[in-house]
Every structure is written in structure tokens, then in C-alpha cells.
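anyone else get weird line breaks when pasting these?? whatever heres mine. first is seq + C-alpha cells for prot A
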Amino acid sequence: MSHEINFIWATHIVHHQSEEYNLSVALRQSWFQGLFSRFFYISLAIAGFSPIMIVTVGAFNTLYQFWIHTRTIDKMGPLEWILNTPSHHRVHHGSNPKYIDKNDAGTLIIWDRMFGTFKAEEEEPTYGITKPLASWNPVWANFHYWDELIALAKELRGFTDKIKVFIKPPGWRPEYLGGFHPPPEIDEKTYRKFDIPTVKGLGPYLLLQFIVVIALTS
């Protein structure tokens, strides 16, 4: 659901904004992600699952998903049929149209194979979101999609459509605005990752800070 409903996607999009793909991406989480994930775990408790089981499985699922955020590990043979692997999860983080909303599984890729959301990695994905964030500002990273949704809602004519903006999938538009907007194709010749010029002297300054921190905490 975090990729299919706009207001939930707004709480998850931060995790997908990075145009790199490494272990640090696993730690890139929205300020709001926990607010909505709690509802899922609360529903399990209401359904009768043991709190110990919920905590244990939740912790395992979180730890498992850390190591698959890497470009270092290639395909893993027969395990590719059962488990969510680095290759499968690279697809999940791709902004290429054919990779969008694929390989949603956390641990077992068999669910994607069963429900038609599986996509094998072909060429390496272009990582990030379809409309790049183009900013290092963490506040804007957490609020930019909310800003887009609110701006779009203001453009729409009726109250019903204004509400639909938040519960429809990303790319949804009413027919009078052209209907669904598919994700754009990526031109590899013109695509550039977001970057800014490094301030002169920043490297030595950061090295000094690192040495001081190590000295004070050792």
C-alpha cells in the first residue's frame, strides 16, 4: 500500500529518494513512516497474534532488509526464487517505468511471483524517484510530496477529486486533466545525478571533525 496510496507514499517516499544504492539507503527513513507502520502491527495484535511474535518478526524483517540495500552482491542462484535478494530489491528502488511498483516483498519474493508484481533485474536500475528531489534539505525531503499533493488538490474542481488526490495512486489525475500520468522514460544520455560543488577545504575540515569525535569517544 505504501506505493499505491498517495498519502501513504508521502510517508515512504524519503526511503526512495536516494539516487545511490547502498547500505545507508536502508537507514534513510521518513519522519512519518513509523506513524503508519504502527497501524499494521496494531492490527496484528487485534487479530490475536502474540506481542512477542510481532516484535520478533518485525525485528527480523527490519534486520533482513538492511543487507539487501547493496550493489556489491550479484544474483544469488536458486535463492532468487524464494528470497528477496539485493538484485530483487535494486529493482524495487528503480525509477525506470518497467521497475516501478515491483518486488514489494520484504523477505520472501514468492509473494511477488504469486501476485504478479515480480520483475527480474535486467539492466541496472536508475535509482531514485520519477521526479528527482534535487535537494539535500532533510525538511524538504520529508514534506515536498505533501506540498505537491496539496498544490494538486487546490487545482481540482470538486471536493471529491480533492480527496481522491490523497487516496489514489501516484500519477492519478481526473479525466479533465488528462487522466493518469505514467512515469516518464529515463534518457540515460541526459540523466545526471543531483550534486553540488564541494566547498574548498570541506574535506580536511570533515577529516578533522572525524578525528576529534574519535578522540573524544575512544
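and prot B, same format (seq, then C-alpha cells)
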Amino acid sequence: VLHPWNTKILYAGTWGLWNRGGLFKSPDAGKTWKRIGFGLENVDIRALAFDPSLPDTMYAGTLNGVYKSPDAGIHWVRSNQGLENIHIESLAVDPRDPKTLYAGSWRRVYKSADGGASWSPIPTGMDLDSDVFSLFLDVQSPDTLYAATCNGIFKTLDGGKLWRKFSKKEGLTTIRVQSIALDPQDPQVLYAGTVGGLFKSTDAGASWQLITEDSLIIWSVVVHPEDSRKIYLGIENGAIVKTKDGGLTWTETNAGITNVHARAAALSPFNPRVIYIGTLNGRNFGGIFQSEDGGTSWKRINRGLTNANIEALAMNLKNPDVIYAGTWEGLFKTTDGGKIWTRSPGIPGQERITALGVDPYRPEVVYAGTPQGLFKSNSGGRQWSKLNLKGKSFSALAISLLNPKILYAATEYGLYRSADGGLKWKKISAEALRSGKILSLALKPDDLQTLFVGAQQGFFTSSDGGDTWRAIPLGPGQRGIRVIEIDPSHPNTLYTAEATGHQIYRSRDGGVSWERIRSGFDLDTPVEFIAVDPVNSETIYVGTAGNGLYSYTFQTEISQAESQIAPLPHPPAY
């Protein structure tokens, strides 16, 4: 929410953010954030509201009821008398009479006439199972109130005595509406944040139009009180995004609480300061990002991509300007370092690409794993042929650096090996690997026979090309292994990350013994990848499923793991 007297001051209440929920304050319009709040017994904050006449008075709706602060959010006391349901999702304050409050719970709306000291239900006309996610008052006519619920939007003209429901016929095609906001200059203009994008009405809700992509899951909507072209959205994965042009373009504005889902990485072997990151944050906020200064700054390089959910990246090691990107809707290629991407033809339909591999010596040879099987190109992606390998889910693909004709592929049926570039395959899964999914795979770059597998059951190694296997425990309480990365300069140095936990381990003796990397990281989300700097192997990059990208330098055992790399920006879509 915006401070009613100072629009540079913002407050953000969070919940379920990987156990990091709470109240945050920004004094500079979202550039920086600081956590505040004493006395909140439950950090799951679902709603915030101000007393417009006394803006130091704030209210917070939480999963433990309503809280009130007399000092702009520094201290809080509980105010729940009369609330039969304390799971509060939304709040609204009457600007004519700030002692009149409304609170939306998991089943009904409550009203207070004494500044939150006591509450009474006002459910007439609403569906009984309507979880009320958002409430909004028409400031020019405060008896007019809108309620965004799991069953659509309800409207009252008499302060909650009777409610009317908007239907799908009016254009609001998504039933689950999680936030609603009014244009302060024109109360006929409404915005509804739903699990299927942002909708806009210009006639007080009589009709609605979708104005963002329908893949956006929107938790909150705020319209700037002085310039209604500026709209702020709180979206899934913790991001806060804004528009300055009424919704034509959107950018991120939440440095300090950014939640980027970094899925894949590619590093230039000739210039370690050039990094490419593939993310799963959707068309407007995801895609591929490039840094040319080691992660200090980023730019989005999505021109030509028709799908911005990136599953895999692979680079031509002889020409790092040539990069392949596996997306949810096919394979794309760039030959100019990401300035322009083009779709690679030949793979059936718009298949989701889950694994990629490029021959290190003959980079025109490319492999791509899809739900339709494993495909191979001998022409840099211009033409493809399907390989004879059983499987629809390719979780890992590895090519031997010593002999690129030797391939390993993990599918839902197990682990397979080919010695002739994919023409013929042999299943090599040990009994220990057959009862769970293989999540990651790595080949020792200086040894044809040694490979490592991360699976739901743990970490496994083979020294005979996969004929026999040995399970190796990494540490107390270690769970399945999702990520394996080998230092290309020091092949006995390995890194792993847990599948369901957040721990990273390092081995410097080829996987015989392991140490947990403890200092510096703040990993509250699962690790998606680890990448070793190809020039300075003391530096690694760690991508997470919602908490951005980190770097770590072992040389100095640095004070804060290089902290978090500069958040990936989200400029307007091309």
C-alpha cells in the first residue's frame, strides 16, 4: 500500500515467502526495502490499510486476525473482538468516517464502527463459501464497496447490507479474483487482479477486459493516487511490478525482496564476465537475461522468443555467440549473443525442451530432449532426426568431453548410454536407481568411465561407464540430489545441491568425501543450477527457484557470499 500523504513511502505485507513473511517498508518508491514491525504474532500478512485522516494509524489483516498500529507500523496490537473467523484476507477504511472498517475473511465480510475495537458480520447476498481476498471502497461514494473473492466480484451500494455478484457474461472470465482497485480520478474504472491476469472495467464493473497475459497470478493491485497511469501489481513468486502507461508495459520495482526463478545458465569460456540466465517467470518478467559485468547488471534479451519460460541453455563452446534455448514451446537459437532469437525448425509441434547438449568439438551437432523423444541435429538446429530412445521425460543429458560420441540420457524409464552418437542405446540403471527419478547427471571430463548421478534416493557414482554403481552419503540428513556440477579446470572438484532441501555440498576428491557450504548463502528456495566460472574456478554461480542468483568465491571465504547478485531487471516486453 502507498502512504496516503507521501507517495514515495510504500508498505508490503508478505506471507508464506519461504518462511520469510512479514512487513516491509520502502522510503524511496520501491528502490530499497527494510523489514519493520514489532508485536505481530503471525507474520502471514494478507492485507494492509491506513486511517486516511491519521496515517500513522495502520491496520493489518493476518491469518491471526486484525492488528492495529498507532505509529506507522513500528508496533502492533491485536484487535479481534467479534471476529468469528480470524483468517483475514482484506481490509478497507471508510474515508468519511475512518472508524468504520471492513474486513474480509475466509467466509464472510465483517464491519466495525469503532476503529476495530469490535466487529459484526455482513454477509447478505454473498455466496457462503466466498473467501474475501480484497475489499475496495469508492472514495467518492464510500457506501459503494467491492469485494474480490474466490467466487468472483461482489458489489454493495449500501455499506454491506446487500451484495450483488458480477457474472462471467460481463467479461470477467476468471472466477478467482484476488485483488481489486479503483482509479482515484475516475471511480468508473476498476482493476481486478486474478489468477488469470489483470482485468479492467471502465463502467463500474458492467463489463471487463483482460489487459495482461493470462498466465500472471496477481495477488494485489494498487493504483497511484495522483497518477492513475501508474499501477503496481504484487504477483506470484514475490515480485512487485509497475506500469507508468496504464498497463501497456511493466517493469519490476522490488530490489531487496526480488524472487526470480533462475532455471538455467550458460557462461562464456572466453569471457567469464558474460553470463546468460534462463528464467521461468513468464512472458513479461521472464526469459533470458545477459550480464556483461559478472552479474553486477543485467538486461533482458528476449527479442524473437515467443515463449519466455526457459528450461535449458546450451552454448557453442567454439563460438559463444551461438546459444540454444529450450523453452516450453520449442527450441530457439541466437548467433549474435542473444540480440535476436529464431525458432529452430524440425522438432514436431511446439514441444517443451527439457534437456540440451552441444558437441564440444563439432558444435553443429546438437541434442534436444522433448516429450516426443530425443532429437539430434547435424546442422546446428536447421534439421532434426528422432533418435531411437524410449522416453518422454528427459531430466538430464550429458556428452563426454573425451569422446563426444558417448552420450548419457536420463528418462522416466532410467539411465541410458550410447557409444555411437545416439544411434543405439543401452540401459545401464542399477537397481538402486530404478525406484526413483534421476534428477541430474555429470561426466568426469578427464575420464571416459566415471560418471555421477543425482537421484531422489541420493548421490551415486560409477567408475565403469554405468555398469556398476555406488551410493555415497553427502552428510547428515542429506536428501535427494537435484544438481551436480563439475569444475572443468579441476575435475576432482564437484558441487551438488539437494532436491527438496536447500543445501549445497562440495567435494575436492572426486566425490569420496563432502563438505557442506554454509557461510554467506541465504537459500530459502531450492537450487536449480550451479555453474563454475570457466576462468576463475574459485567462483560459482547458484540459481534458485524463486530467490534469484547468487555468486560465491571460495578464495576469500567472503563475508556474505558476494551477497545476492544484482536482481535481474524486467524491462518492457519486445
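btw re prot B: The mean pLDDT is 85. Residues 318 and 363 are 7 Å apart (CA to CA).
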